[in-house]
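Feature request, filed as a ticket because there's no other form

It would be nice if the structure record came with a short human-readable summary line next to the tokens. Right now we just get the raw output. Example of a typical job, pasted below so the devs can see what we mean:
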Amino acid sequence: MAETLPPAGVDLFDVEWLQVTEAREPSLSPSDEAARDRVWARAVQVNPALFDGPVVACSALERTGPRTLHLSWVRVTYRHYALRRVPGATALPSLFVNVIQPTEDDCVLAARMSPSTAAPGRWQLPGGSVEPPQGGDKLDELGLAGQAARELAEELGIDAAAETLWLWAVTRGENRSVGLTYLAPPLSEAVVRAAFAAAVAAERAEGRDPELDAIAFVGSPDELAPLEGPHADYLEPIVRRYTAAS
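Raw output as currently delivered:
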């Protein structure tokens, strides 16, 4: 029988096998739907860059074996998460992918979100929200790895095939958000810095603000402390586990 994982602060799970299935989005009462839309409208007034595009939420995360998780997902749009600010309403947890980009000397890249993003100044791993599949595509392990590879290319300018990314851990933390953390092949720090600089320059040349405006390389959790600004709640546990195993 599947065991529903209990809520916690930041959980980090070893995963050997991830089962992924689509579920149906829970219906909202008319009052919760109206309140959600009001909260979303106010948020857009504050930050016009917010986009109500399609996104994936996690409807259930269950342990089905020692290193096996079953993930159920639903199709929503970004305004769904405005329910977090509606008293009495429940928003489904967000689902995102991120990538550990190690260097050849076993450091981990941390990246800072730019001021125009939804989390300005936050240090985290490169990554982003999971998007629903289009056409005949499937949201399976390879599809999720492909989304992680796309984030790596868009944010850092690093091209990595989905097949080279390994699902290294699953985290659950802030707002019960579920993160799928992939491990990329190691690169030299010089190569990563050059790729990132080129990606940032290309975005700015097109008149767009880059998602990330700074990167740093850390060899231990203690080296996160000098990075000023908020940190994603999963960042320290991920860095701690990775550097301890290196």
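Something like this underneath would help us a lot:
The chain is about 25% helix and 30% strand.
Confidence is low (pLDDT under 50) at residues 1-8.
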